[in-house]
Write a structure and sequence with these properties.
Layout (H helix, E strand, L loop, with lengths): L2 H17 L5 H12 L3 H12 L3 H19 L4 H7 L5 H12 L3 H7 L33 E7 L2 E8 L5 H8 L7 H9 L19 E6 L5 E10 L11 E5 L2 E8 L4 H18 L15 E6 L4 E8 L1
Antiparallel strand pairs: 1-6, 2-4, 2-5, 3-4, 3-7, 6-8, 7-8
Length: 312
C-alpha cells in the first residue's frame, strides 16, 4: 500500500547524493531513473504526485539551501558557490536566489537572516502512516539510563501549542496556522547555524531541532518545537517564533542509545516513558520543576532518544 512512499523516499536520498556531485539536472534525473528502474517520465510524475512539487523545482530549492549554508559559514566566492551547487553562472544563481529569498546572495551574506530552506521530504514514516514499528522482536531494545546533568544558561527559540501533547499532534495543529507549519518553521530553524544540539550539521534533516513539553499555569500539558541557542546569541530571529532565556538548571536525562527508527521506535518511546514514570525523584532529593521545559531529542542514528526533565 505504501510502496511508492518508500520509493519516493529512496528518490529523495539519491537526489541528495547527486546535488553535491556537480551534475546537471539531466544527469541527476538519468541516474535517478536508472537506479530505481523506471523511465524518466514515470519518475518525475510520481515524484510530483507524492511531494507536491516537480523534480526540477525540488532540485533547485535543495541546491539553493546548500548554497545558503556555504554563504553563511564560509568566505568562498559567490561564483565558486554557484558553480559548486550546479548553477550555470553567478547571474543565474543570483536570479534564483533573489526569486526565492527576496534578496541577492551578497546581501544575505551581509545580514545572515533566517531563511526558509527546502527540507528533505519525509514520504515514508511508518508511525505517521499508522504502520507502527516493523519488528516484533525486542532484542534490539536496550536499557534506559537516568543521569542528572547541568545544562548551562541558553536561549530556547520555539513555537508552542497548548492544545498539543506530542510531535505528530503538534504539527497537525500547526499546519492550520499561517507561517507556523512544519516546512516553514523547520526550514527557518535549518538556516540558523548556532544550534546547541546540532550533531551532523547537515541541512534538511532537522539536525539540532528538538521538541519540548511545558505546563501552563493551570497545569495543562502543551508541546513546543524549536532549537537551543547560546545565551549570548544576538542574531536576527524569525518574527513568528518565541525566544526564551533559560537559566542554568539541572535535569534528569532519560536516554536510550542509538536504534533503528523504523524497527523499534514505538518500543524505545515506551521504554523511556516507563523509566520516567518509575523514577524516584524523592530518593534523589529533588522533584520535577514544572515551571521549566522538558526537552525531547530524537536522533536515532547518532544519539538515540533522550528526554531532559528539569528538576529542583
Amino acid at each position: 500500500m505504501f510502496e511508492w512512499h518508500r520509493t519516493i523516499q529512496r528518490m529523495v536520498n539519491i537526489i541528495e547524493r547527486q546535488i553535491g556531485g556537480g551534475n546537471d539536472e539531466l544527469i541527476a534525473l538519468q541516474a535517478l531513473a536508472r537506479e530505481l528502474g523506471y523511465s524518466q517520465f514515470h519518475v518525475t510524475r510520481q515524484f510530483k504526485n507524492l511531494t507536491g512539487m516537480t523534480f526540477r523545482k525540488y532540485l533547485g530549492l535543495r541546491r539553493l539551501a546548500h548554497s545558503v549554508v556555504e554563504l553563511r559559514d564560509s568566505d568562498n566566492g559567490i561564483i565558486d558557490i554557484a558553480m559548486k551547487w550546479g548553477f550555470s553562472s553567478q547571474e543565474a544563481y543570483t536570479r534564483a536566489f533573489k526569486r526565492d529569498f527576496g534578496m541577492t546572495p551578497s546581501i544575505y551574506r551581509q545580514r545572515k537572516i533566517p531563511l526558509v530552506l527546502q527540507l528533505r521530504p519525509i514520504t515514508f514514516d511508518p508511525y505517521s502512516l499508522g504502520l507502527g514499528e516493523s519488528s516484533m522482536s525486542k532484542h534490539e531494545l536496550q536499557s534506559v539510563s537516568a543521569t542528572v546533568v547541568t545544562l548551562p544558561a541558553h536561549k530556547f527559540l520555539h513555537i508552542r501549542n497548548q492544545e498539543a501533547e506530542d510531535y505528530f499532534g503538534f504539527w497537525a495543529l500547526q499546519e492550520k496556522i499561517p507561517g507556523q507549519d512544519c516546512d516553514t518553521i523547520c526550514g527557518l530553524l535549518d538556516s540558523i547555524s548556532a544550534k546547541l544540539d546540532r550533531v551532523t550539521g547537515k541541512i534538511g534533516e532537522f539536525d539540532g531541532q528538538i521538541g519540548a513539553w511545558f505546563f501552563s499555569e493551570s497545569g495543562k500539558l502543551g508541546y513546543a518545537y524549536g532549537i537551543r541557542l547560546p545565551a549570548h546569541y544576538a542574531g536576527e530571529l524569525p518574527k513568528q517564533m518565541l525566544c526564551l532565556d533559560v537559566p542554568q538548571r539541572d535535569y534528569v536525562v532519560f536516554s536510550h542509545p542509538q536504534f533503528d527508527y523504523e524497527v523499534i521506535w514505538d518500543s524505545v518511546f515506551a521504554a523511556v516513558n516507563k523509566a520516567m514514570e518509575d523514577y524516584d525523584y524523592a530518593a534523589s532529593g529533588n522533584r520535577q520543576d514544572r515551571d521549566a521545559f522538558s526537552y525531547q531529542i530524537v536522533n536515532p542514528e547518532h544519539l538515540g532518544y533522550r528526554v531532559y526533565v528539569p528538576i529542583k
